[in-house]
C-alpha cells in the first residue's frame, strides 16, 4: 500500500516567505521614517559631505608634498597642507637627537622591537619560556644597537636618544618590567597572610592614587637627592622603573579580577590532584586569569602607549618633542598642524593595531572555549 502525501497539506516554515529588507528599506526605516527625521538626516549628511570634501581638498588636492629646494618657500602662499615639512624633517621626528651618521642603528633597533611585538602575537610563542626568551633577546638587541660600544659601533648615551625610537623603547621597557611586577603584586595581594596582603594593597592603592607625572618627576629629580650614588643609576632607567611601577599597579588589579572570576572549584580540584602552589598558578590560574582579563589588559596596554608622551615633560626627546623641534625653526614654524597630524597618525597606527589584535585574541579564545 502506497501512502500519498499532498505537499500542500504539510505545514510550511514560518519564515518560508520572509524576505530580508534591502539596504534601501533599512535606510528609510532608520533615517527617513518621518519628515522630521528625513530633514535631520539630510542636513547631517550634507554637513558630513562638506567636511569630508574640505578635508580632502586641504589635505590632498591643494597640498604640497615636496620641496625641491629644501626650503619652505613653496608652501608660503598655498591654501592646502604643507606635507613638505614631513619630507624635510622626518628624520628628526623619527630619530630625535640621535647622531645623523648612526641613525641606521636607531631605525634597525625600532624595527627589531616592532618585530618582537609582532612575533609575540603569534600563537607559537604563547609559552612562558618562548615568550620570555623572545622579549629578552629583542630588548637586549634593541639596547645594544641604540647604545653601541660593541662590534665597532660608536657609543651613544641615552641622553642622545629620541624620536619614535625612544617612545617605543619606553613602552617596551615599561611593559616588559611592569608585567612580571603586576603578576607578583596580584598574587601577593591574594596572599593568605594578612600583613602581606594589606601591605601589597596599600602599595597598589598608593601608586594608583598618584598622577603618573608625579611618579616620573620623583624618579627623575627627587631620587638623586635621597639615594646613594651607587644606587641612582641613569635617569632613563629610574624613569622607566617608575613608569613600570605605575603600569604594574593598574595591571595587578586587572589580573586579580581575572583570578577572582575563575570558579573556586578549579583550584580546589588542582589541590586534590596534589599540584603544588606554583603548578596551580602557572598551569591553571594565570592562563585563565589572563584570558578572562584580556579586554581590560589590551585597554591598559593602549593607555600605557599613549602615556609615554608624558616623558617629554621631564626632559626626554620623545616623538612629541621631536615633532615640536621639527617645526620649531623659523623656516617651518607655520607647518605645526601638519607635524601634529603626522605624529597623531603614528600614535593611531600603534594604538589601532593593538586594539585590533586584542579583538582577534578575544575571538580566538572565545572559539577555544566551545
UniProtKB/TrEMBL annotation:
Coiled coil: none
ABC transmembrane type-1 domain segment(s): 164-358
Membrane-crossing segments per the record: 36-56, 106-126, 133-156, 168-188, 209-230, 236-252, 308-327, 339-359
Domain of life: Bacteria
CDD domains, per database record: TM_PBP2
UniProt-listed Pfam families: BPD_transp_1
Main location, first listed in the record: membrane
Membrane topology, from the record: Multi-pass membrane protein
Assigned keywords, A-Z: Cell membrane, Membrane, Plasmid, Transmembrane, Transmembrane helix, Transport
Localization (cell): Cell inner membrane; Cell membrane
Similarity section: Belongs to the binding-protein-dependent transport system permease family. HisMQ subfamily.
Protein name as it appears in the record: Amino acid ABC transporter permease
Organism: Shinella sedimenti
Amino acid at each position: 500500500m502506497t501512502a500519498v502525501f499532498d505537499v500542500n497539506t504539510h505545514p510550511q516554515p514560518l519564515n518560508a516567505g520572509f524576505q530580508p529588507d534591502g539596504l534601501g528599506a533599512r535606510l528609510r526605516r532608520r533615517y527617513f521614517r518621518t519628515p522630521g527625521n528625513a530633514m535631520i538626516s539630510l542636513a547631517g549628511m550634507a554637513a558630513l559631505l562638506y567636511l569630508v570634501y574640505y578635508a580632502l581638498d586641504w589635505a590632498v588636492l591643494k597640498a604640497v608634498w615636496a620641496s625641491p629646494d629644501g626650503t619652505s618657500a613653496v608652501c608660503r602662499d598655498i591654501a592646502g597642507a604643507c606635507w613638505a615639512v614631513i619630507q624635510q624633517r622626518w628624520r628628526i621626528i623619527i630619530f630625535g637627537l640621535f647622531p645623523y651618521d648612526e641613525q641606521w642603528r636607531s631605525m634597525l633597533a625600532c624595527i627589531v622591537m616592532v618585530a618582537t611585538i609582532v612575533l609575540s602575537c603569534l600563537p607559537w610563542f604563547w609559552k612562558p619560556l618562548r615568550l620570555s626568551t623572545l622579549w629578552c633577546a629583542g630588548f637586549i638587541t634593541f639596547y645594544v644597537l641604540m647604545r653601541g660600544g660593541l662590534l665597532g659601533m660608536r657609543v651613544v648615551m641615552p641622553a642622545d636618544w629620541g624620536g619614535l625610537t625612544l617612545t617605543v623603547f619606553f613602552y617596551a621597557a615599561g611593559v616588559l618590567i611592569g608585567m612580571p611586577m603586576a603578576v607578583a603584586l596580584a598574587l601577593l595581594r591574594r596572599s593568605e597572610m594578612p600583613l602581606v596582603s594589606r601591605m601589597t594593597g596599600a602599595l597598589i592603592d598608593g601608586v594608583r592614587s598618584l598622577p603618573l607625572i608625579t611618579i616620573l618627576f620623583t624618579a627623575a629629580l627627587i631620587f638623586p637627592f635621597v639615594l646613594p650614588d651607587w644606587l641612582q643609576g641613569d635617569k632613563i632607567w629610574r624613569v622607566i622603573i617608575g613608569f613600570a611601577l605605575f603600569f604594574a599597579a593598574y595591571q595587578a588589579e586587572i589580573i586579580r579580577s581575572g583570578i577572582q572570576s575563575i570558579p573556586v572549584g578549579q583550584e580546589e580540584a588542582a589541590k586534590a590532584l596534589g599540584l603544588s602552589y606554583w603548578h596551580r598558578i602557572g598551569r591553571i590560574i594565570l592562563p585563565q586569569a589572563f584570558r578572562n582579563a584580556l579586554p581590560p589588559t589590551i585597554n591598559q596596554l593602549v593607555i600605557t602607549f599613549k602615556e609615554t608622551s608624558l616623558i617629554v615633560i621631564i626632559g626626554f626627546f620623545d616623538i612629541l618633542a621631536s615633532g615640536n623641534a621639527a617645526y620649531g625653526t623659523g623656516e617651518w614654524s607655520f607647518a605645526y598642524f601638519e607635524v601634529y597630524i603626522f605624529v597623531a597618525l603614528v600614535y593611531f597606527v600603534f594604538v589601532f593595531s593593538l586594539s585590533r589584535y586584542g579583538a582577534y585574541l578575544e575571538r580566538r579564545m572565545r572559539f577555544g572555549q566551545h
